[in-house]
Design a protein that fits this description.
InterPro entries: CofD (IPR002882), CofD-like_dom_sf (IPR038136), Gluconeogen_factor (IPR010119). It holds the Pfam family CofD. Belongs to the gluconeogenesis factor family. It comes from Corynebacterium felinum. By secondary structure, the protein is an alpha/beta fold. It has a domain of 93 residues. The protein has 13 helices and twelve strands. A seven-stranded parallel beta sheet has the order 3-2-1-7-8-9-10, sandwiched between helices. Strands 5-4-6 form a three-stranded antiparallel beta sheet. Strand 4 and strand 5 form a beta hairpin. Helix 5 packs across helix 6 and helix 11 runs parallel beside helix 12. It is globular, with a radius of gyration of 19 Å.
Amino acid sequence: MNTSTFNHASSSHHSPRPEGLCVASFGGGHGLFQTLRAVRLLDPASITAIVTVADDGGSSGRIRRELGQIPPGDLRMALAALAPQDEEGKIWEEVLQHRYGGYGALAGHAVGNLLIAGLYDVLQSEVQALDAVARMIRAQGRVLPLCEQPLDIEADVAGLGADPRIMRQVRGQVAVATTVGQVRRVRLIPESPQPCGEAIEALQKADLVTLGPGSWFSSVLPHLLVPGIVDTLNSISAMRVVVLNLDAEPGETAGFTAERHLHILTQHASDFRADAVLVDALALPSEADRVHLERAAANLGARISFHDLREADSAGVYTSRHDPDKLAAALKKVYYGN
């Protein structure tokens, strides 16, 4: 189902370069994992995942606190998503994602996290460490950190006290993602981190850039708060596509409509411009809701494109995850306009 499609051919953007489509994808966690699986189906000449580095929970949080490195968990997941789908590649994907059990010092650590951390200790470069893992597993793309220093997220949250008008500050990705209050705004600490130079270069070479899906406040918006990222996105000829979440997430975006997600994006990055916003057709059955969403997208300079994007389980029941095949088809239709 597609009630409104952005026609790439009629825009000011260029067709893919002769050597093929170059894609850059922003995100983190499971949302980026599904996006990368979808992007691979476009048979691009290159894929670059640009990954948020604010995680402070679990294995990533421990490595961050004990070793002072950027949290590797979302980076590891992106690498796993880019592992070849042959027998050896699937083994590497499983190894990277494997977590130690038990109650000892390694309990809860993912093998891929420790591998990235160890390579950083040897190479003293986050980018070189990630490139080394990518070569080892024959990754079908490159994974880069948003910044080469760990970031913190601090949020203004309402509803944590007796007076719902009073804002309280909540710090840390896990705390923000699981708050019982209503997140109003987030900021990065440090306030003006240096973006990864290789990530900027990847954006400048891209034909297609995707933002989302993912935890809106803790995995999607942080990319647009890093100085230089929005300016770069607005200066390039690539098509910029926002992929909206299928559902509001418990905690940080509980009760959010699709329209609210776009308003929040605009509030945090008022200068950011996009070309298309991909929305699951089942998420907005009301024509009035669609009109409101189209107006919110227009504030970004974007058109709405509705598609069947939701993954179904083995019993045919829809889940809260994007289906890579459906997302790939939607991206192809939006980009090529056919």
